[in-house]
Fold this protein.
Amino acid sequence: MAFAGLLVCFPLRDSDFRALDYYNTAVYLMELGMPEKALEQAQKGINHGFSSPDLFFMMGNAHFTLGKTREAVTAYETAIHLKPSHASAHYNLAVVWMSMNRFSEAEAEAALVMEYDSNHPRVGQLLNEIMRKRALPSN
């Protein structure tokens, strides 16, 4: 199993190490399929002053896994605020919007994925799915 830790290249204080430990633990817990525990660790990292686009991206993934779409939107939007070119955050936000039948928002996020990563492996499929769902009759 790959461990997707964060590489930092600047002087760190002890509290920075604790915050990074919380982040890396949260990522690992997500890989183990434990989103609730991952969110607890991520929040501890935030409480220790850690903030990064990848932290909020991971939190979005955890919230979405738990079916908490509003919280997922907030986390992905925070990741995008911190790094506007975060193509994966735009992609996942598009998926969340589509799950909420908010097709215009999903399409707008998918367009940003294409702008920031024209070789994204799944964005074309996502756009096709958005168009297919948009064409279905409303209940």
Notes: Residues 57 and 76 are 5 Å apart (CA to CA). The domain at 52-139 is CATH 1.25.40.10 (Serine Threonine Protein Phosphatase 5, Tetratricopeptide repeat).
